[in-house]
Amino acid sequence: MTSLRNEIRLLGLSLEDGQTLRTVCPNCTAAHEETFILTRDGDRLLYQCKRASCNTKGRIVSNSALKSGSHNQKKVFKPKYFEGEAWPLDEQTPIWSTLKAKYNFSDEDIEVFTQEGVTFELEDFSGLKFLHFPIYREGKLIGTCRKSINHKPKERRKSKLYPHIQGIPYYYFPNVGRSKELFIVEGCMDAIKLACMNKSAMALNGTSLNIEWFAEYLKEAEWIETVVLALDPDAQSIARRMEKDLSLFINSKVLALPKDPKDCTKEQINEGMSLLQI
Ligand SMILES: [Zn+2]
Asked: Fewest 10 Å CB contacts: which of 61, 104, 131, 210?
């Protein structure tokens, strides 16, 4: 006798990825009404009978996937490459030796992470400090790896005292090079790119900024004279709105770039900044 699972697999044979079929339920056959909904989602079939008394529902591997074994193949990790140029780190960028003295790291510590010997200091607003080590491949920065330097237990980050609520960013290089501008960007790589150009940058990890929180932050960060919003090109309207909100209490500008800051050349960023007279 054919099992229910096999019957469902047979029904799924005709379905292309993303397609849905409505038919008589193979379990309850409910007066030949089409109560059964079957959808193909890649290697899987999702099914549910709408009849409350039947309550047949679930998710199984499709027939073709069972045969090919494709559902068992592990997804291959593909590192994300930057479209832009490989950008060398400036000599002025705070270098490992400074941090080594400050935090007592050994040469061996750093070799584990990078051959370049350059780190980025990061403080997030939960009170934790991290060092970010750039990871290079074929001369391109493809990511960072981080290490906590003030060793607070993990639970503390999750506690209600230090919530990672939306709109409260991480920041990189506060007051680097004694700049008077703070750049607000979306991602960590954007912030690092600006830090390489000796600019102070704050990463939102998205596009939302908690304005009340930021107003409080500005009271402490007296060095900031101008806030420059350098969000990705697809978030220009958000940047304009943010500029309007921020202009109530700080001089703020929108930096329009042809690409995400991380993918721009230094010349493109410099050109945008000269238009803003920064
Ligand atoms: Zn049913």
From this structure: 104
* Ligand 1 midpoint to CA 46 (Å): 14
What integer pLDDT is reported at residue 271 of this predicted model?
94
Give the list of residues 6+ apart from residue 42 with CB closer than 8 angstroms, or none: 17, 65
What is the C-alpha to C-alpha distance for residues 230 and 187, in angstroms, rounded to an integer? 10
Query: All domains of the chain, ordered by start, with CATH?
Result: 4-71 (2.20.25), 96-275 (3.40.1360.10)
DSSP structural state of residue 202 = E
Compute, in angstroms, the gap from residue 29 CA to the centroid of ligand 1: 6
CA of 9 to the centre of ligand 1 (A): 16
pTM exceeds 0.70: no
Per-residue pLDDT of 250-269, as tens digits, reads 999 999 999 998 888 888 99
The structure tokens 């309207």 sit at: 237
Q: Label residue 178 exposed, middle or buried (CB < 10 Å: 0-12, 13-18, 19+).
A: exposed
